[in-house]
Amino acid sequence: SALLLFISIMTMFMSGVVAIFEYDLKKIIALSTLSQLGVMMFSISLGLYELAFFHLLTHALFKALLFLCAGILIHGAGNTQDIRSFGGLSLNFPLVAVCMNLANLSLCGVPFLAGFYSKDLIVELACQYSWGIFVLLMMFICLSLTVLYSVRLTYLSFVGPYGGGTSISVCESDYSLVGPVVILSFTSLVSGPILSWLNFPAPVLIFLPVFLKWGALFFVGVSLLVMLSLQGLTYSYKWGAVSKFSGLMWFLPW
Fold it and tell me: Please, what sign has the CA dihedral across residues 219, 222, 228, 230?
C-alpha cells in the first residue's frame, strides 16, 4: 500500500503540473482525468475502497460534462483545440460556459457540488491517517494544482482577451448537443448528496483539528486567488526549460 500511495501521489502531482503548462483543451481535461484517477488510487492505498468507488461515480458525471462542453467548443471554434486561440467565448457560448464552469468547480471540490462530497471525504479521512506531514502536504498541493489548471482553462477560454481564432454560435441552437450538457449539469449539482446517501446510509464521523478541517477549503480558495492574480502576468515572460519539460509530459512518452 505504501508503494501505491507513492505512485498515486506522484501521478496526481505530475498530471497537475503538466496541465498548468498545456495548451491543448482535450489534453488538459485528459490530464485532469489522470489526476483524479490518482486520487482514486490514493484512496485505495489508504483502504478507503468505497470512497474510491464513490469518487469514480461522481467524477464520471462531471468529467463527461467537461468533455462534452470541450467538444462543443472545439466544434464551434473552427475545430481548433488550442486554448490560446479562444478567449471571450462566454459571449458566443453562454450556456456552455455556465455548464463547463459548473463542471470545473465540481472538479475543484467547491462545497455542495458533486465533486465536493467524494473528494472532501477522501481528503478528511486521509488527514486521520498517520502517514506523516509529507503525504498530507503533497495531497494539499495536488488539490491546489487542480484548482490552478481549472482556473487557467476557464480564464483563457471564456474570460481572457480574444485569441484570434474563428468562432460561431450555431452550436447552442442544436438541442442534440446542448440537451445532454444540460442534463449532465443537473447531475453535477445533485449526484453528490444522492450518491452519498445511497452509498453511506450511516454518516461518516470525522474528528480533526480546525486547521486540517478547513485545510482543503483554504487551499482551494488561495489557489483560486493566486491564479486569478497571476493570469495577466503568466504569459508575459517565458518559463523556458520548465515549460518545455512539462509541455512534453516530463519526457515520459519517450
Answer: negative
Which residues face 167 on adjacent strands? Answer: none
The mean per-residue pLDDT over the stretch 72-99 comes to 83
Residue 115's identity, in one-letter code, is: G
pLDDT in tens, 194-247: 888 888 877 777 888 888 888 778 887 888 787 777 665 554 445 566 667 776
Q: What's the DSSP call for residue 83?
A: G
What ranges in 77-214 are assigned the alpha helix state H? 94-108, 114-128, 133-154, 175-199, 210-213
Alpha-carbon distance of 50 to 53, in angstroms, equals 5
Given a contact cutoff of 8 angstroms between Cβ atoms, the answer to whether 153 and 105 are in contact is no
The confidence score (pLDDT) of residue 226 equals 79
All cell numbers assigned to 190 = 445533485
Helix (H, G, I), strand (E, B) or coil at 24: strand
Amino acid at 8: S
pTM (whole model) above 0.90 = no
> In angstroms, how far is the first alpha carbon of the chain from the final one?
28
Which pLDDT tens digit goes with each residue over 136-159? 889 888 988 998 888 888 888 888
Q: What residue spans define the domains of the chain?
A: 1-161+178-200+212-251
Closest by CA to 22, choosing from 167, 157, 223, is 157
Taking CA atoms, 68 is separated from 25, 26, 85, 171, in Å, by: 12, 10, 19, 12
